């Protein structure tokens, strides 16, 4: 199974496309995961630049976080997903629904993503993320029972935060969830937040070990299923994910440096 590792555009939005793409290539990533502009010309410019650089593309949709009212959220979801699919990425990673929507409303949104995926011939996977329909294990479990084909992005750092634990007490939930994972966001969380200050620090050895255990299980499941490709995006984010000093605001770590360090760890761990 081929394992490809992607650079997150999140945290580097201020860089010009050519600068960011060169940074990605220099670090040794295989591709870019990003939210694409709604302007078709700008979207296609990104797509062309990424392809010309020999990189792969995973498209993101997260902007519906700004739409709390259900009808507006549904309409925005359709718009952003269609735009993402138009770029012909490997797949689209979407932030879908809200934890305060009804079960039926979130089911409607999941069905909408499935229709758009079929219409465009582009897979769409749903990210495990706080405040979305998947924001807590007990929120997600009913959807897994009802929708056996549901495909997920595993960002389990969010569940660490939501459950105030490293999920030691939820083996059944993990056993039910991990077979649905098609993409990994490789960020290390802890019981009080979705991102440790530096996963290389010895005080976070337990957190790193637990996340690596989950990622190993996902990779093994995909190999056993005969998957040709597994994708992973190190996704340490900027402030406020990156913690900072009080008053001065000086960051405790550099998100890009952490993502490159995670790239190297994953390359060594999953080398053929």
Automatic annotation (TrEMBL):
The keyword Magnesium is annotated on this UniProt entry: no
Coiled-coil ranges from the UniProt annotation: none
Domain Xylose isomerase-like TIM barrel: 21-186
Pfam families, sorted: AP_endonuc_2 (PF01261)
Gene Ontology molecular functions: isomerase activity
Keywords associated with the record: Isomerase
InterPro entries linked: Xyl_isomerase-like_sf, Xyl_isomerase-like_TIM-brl
Name listed for the protein in its UniProt record: Sugar phosphate isomerase/epimerase
Organism: Massilia frigida
Lineage, opening ranks: Bacteria, Pseudomonadati, Pseudomonadota, Betaproteobacteria, Burkholderiales
């Amino acid at each position: 199974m081929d394992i490809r590792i992607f650079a997150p555009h999140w945290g580097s939005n201020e860089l010009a496309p050519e600068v960011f793409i060169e940074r990605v290539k220099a670090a040794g990533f295989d591709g870019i995961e990003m939210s694409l502009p709604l302007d078709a010309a700008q979207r296609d410019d990104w797509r062309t630049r990424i392809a010309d650089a020999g990189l792969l593309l995973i498209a993101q949709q997260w902007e519906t976080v700004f739409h709390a009212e259900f009808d507006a959220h549904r309409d925005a979801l359709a718009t952003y997903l269609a735009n993402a699919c138009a770029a012909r990425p490997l797949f689209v990673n979407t932030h879908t629904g809200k934890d305060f929507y009804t079960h039926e409303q979130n089911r409607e949104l999941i069905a909408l993503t499935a229709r758009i995926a079929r219409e465009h011939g582009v897979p769409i996977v749903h990210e495990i993320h706080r405040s979305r329909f998947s924001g807590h294990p007990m929120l997600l479990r009913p959807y897994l029972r009802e929708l056996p084909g549901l495909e997920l992005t595993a960002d389990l750092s969010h569940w660490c935060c939501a459950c105030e634990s490293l999920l030691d007490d939820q083996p059944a939930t993990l056993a039910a969830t991990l077979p649905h994972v098609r993409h990994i966001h490789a960020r290390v969380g802890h019981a009080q937040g979705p991102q440790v200050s530096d996963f290389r620090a010895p005080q976070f050895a337990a957190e790193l070990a637990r996340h690596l255990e989950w990622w190993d299980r996902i990779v093994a499941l995909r190999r056993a299923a005969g998957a040709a490709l597994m994708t992973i995006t190190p996704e340490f984010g900027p402030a406020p994910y990156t913690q900072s000093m009080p008053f001065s605001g000086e960051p405790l770590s550099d998100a890009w440096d952490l993502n490159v360090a995670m790239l190297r760890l994953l390359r060594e761990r999953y080398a053929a």
